[in-house]
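[[Encoded backbone]]
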Amino acid sequence: MTRTACLRKGSSQSRQKKQGLATQQKQQRRPTKQKNSYNLELQETDPMYLPYLTDEDLAEDPPDHKSGYVAVIGKPNAGKSTLINAIVGQKLSIVSFKPQTTRHRIMGIASDKKYQMILFDTPGIIDKKRTKLEERMMSAVVDSIQSSEAIIAVVDAIDRPKEALAMFQPGPDWSGPPMAVLLNKADLISEEAVDELASWYKENCRADKVFVGSAKMKTNVADLKEWAVSKLPLGPTLYPKGTASDQPEKFFVSEIIREKIFFLYDQEIPYCSQIHIAEFKERRRPAKDYIHAQILVERESQVPIIIGTDGIAIKKLGQLARKDIEDFLERPVFLELSVQCSEKWRDSKDMLRKYGYFDPAYV
């Protein structure tokens, strides 16, 4: 059995004192001898590992405490991940100018003394599913909607906004969760166009509320968050209050590497690539933690593109990824990257299952 540590939120100012499960690993694990006994700190992968709980975690919920799930949906590149990061107060999801960067359903957790809201950052809605990978990605969207108490639809106001929810558009007989619409990038269109879109979404998509703003600039994000919290039912705290996500550290390490691939490579390379963390070893200081990440591509011709002439491209990828990984983990790492080819992995159920696309924790 493998224990999964929850990711804790840190100060947006310094990030030096993340509390909770994700930073328990950075504490020294050298045994301290006391007479004839040893006091050992277990690693989080040990079946006997138990996380430390803070006073905030042990505090009782107030009688009116709320908790529940909110699905964030929209077309690729609409700004869903940016919104999730803004609400949670920490970067959890890949943000790129290229569409379809989110593949898994990623949970972000926003907590306060009076509530806990679990947000699903879902893959972008696509009409035509070309691979089994895209089928699993759309399954994540449907499952998130079905599991939620409320829906936030992020709509790019300058990219065919009335088609943003073509695949999922609540009609007159809709009996699902209430939905709010965020007209993202609305500052780039006229006030008349904004008012017309707001009316259209209320009339045609049964939007409970339409917010006008920018996820990137955090305009009206606080009001949108307040709306979502108001839709949560009464319920207990589901995760420790300092938790920002339920995903393990190595998941976010793989996402950081994948984000850098989107940044450095063009055309089909980012979409054909998958990251597998083959090894993740914590070491006693002063040694660096060891991470071996395998980059999987679909064609042999893509391997030399990832590596680059004289290994320059993969070296730059490793440098950029390692810096962000160390910032995220708050400890030094030795990152080793390798590349291998697996033809048509995106259409292989076995490969998709191996990389978590059939795991209910991710989909």
